[in-house]
Amino acid sequence: MISRQGIEYRFCKNENASECIVICTGAGVHIHHNVWLQDELAKRCSVLLYNRGGYGESKLDQPKRTLETINAELESLVDELELDNMILLGPSLGGYYARYYNYLHPDRVKGVINIDTRISNLYSKIKNKVPAEKKEATAQHFAPLRLDDQLVQSEIEEVFTMEFNQFRYHETPVLNFYNTGYGEGFEFLSELIVNVEKQEAEMDKNVKLVFSDVGHDIITHDTEFFFLEVDKFLAEIR
Question: What is the pTM of this model?
Answer without folding.
Answer: 0.93
